[in-house]
Design goal:
Elements: H1 5-14, H2 20-33, H3 37-43, H4 49-60, H5 74-77, H6 82-88, E1 90-95, E2 99-104, H7 112-119, H8 133-149, H9 164-173, H10 183-189, E3 194-199, H11 202-209, H12 219-226, H13 231-244, E4 247-255, E5 259-266, E6 269-277, H14 278-291
Parallel strand pairs: 2-3
Antiparallel strand pairs: 1-2, 4-5, 5-6
Amino acid sequence: MPLEDVAVGQILVKQSYLSEEELQNALLEAKENKQSLINVLSGQGLITPSLIQGALAEHYKLEFYDLQTNPPSTEELASLPEAIARKYFVIVVEKKENSVKIATTDPQQENLEEVIRVNLGKEEAVFPEEESTEKKKEKKGEEEEKKSEEPKKEKGKEEKPKSKEKEVKEKKKAGGGFFGLGRKKAEAEGFKGKITYVFASKEGIEAMFLRYRKPLATRFQQIVDAEKEVAPEILVEIINDAIQLRASDIHFEPQGDKFTIVRFRVDGVMHEAGRIPKIYYEGVVNLIKIEANMRIDEHFAPQDGAGDELL
């Protein structure tokens, strides 16, 4: 999960991007105006969002990954279930046979690696089973009872409380963890390769979540799959589907020599509406050019066109 504003502010102060006074003033303004700390600091001109992301990446000693200029492929994104990606703010940006690169806002989340290893390549998210309230109370009672039975320590010889770091190490050594697995068992039951982390902004990862949206159910895709119609009918159905779904834009995105992805913009968000094989796509494009009074023999220079259609 992304860091809270206070934690982000403390990192910026530690790295001398802000003074303690500037941080406290910015936190107060963020609370009063219900804004994020990053927006307030940017508005005050104290620090830019890019510098903040760089500072956070430096804090974690990770490379900063710009998702806007280097977005992952659909296949890479789908390597982790959407529920896991949203809960832990992690996405796959590169996947090879024996290695995977993960973009995250916080690589120090408890048992993150076990979660990724167990879920990588799965369609449905695998979450740890949380203890019920009754079981937690029962466990707490047993611990208190055990503690009361222990002989009292001599004065001056009380044991020092364990540090959080030591507790985590002991937990891992005992094979604990979010799944009760630990790293070795997680590797045995899931992904066994190397995991590399890179830092990405919260906004960048949130933008990638939109690409998890399932393709729209469209009639033209059913026609293409059934191979029953040709270019004129496909184009008519694409337009009809767009009207029924209240789309404001239709985008055609050629994917090499294989197929073309058709996307509709609905309520400001792009959705995949279907895929057209190359054998149909050229005919569809030529029909659009004819209707819009454009040259069909021009394939490289941009053209503007317009046309009316009675529907």
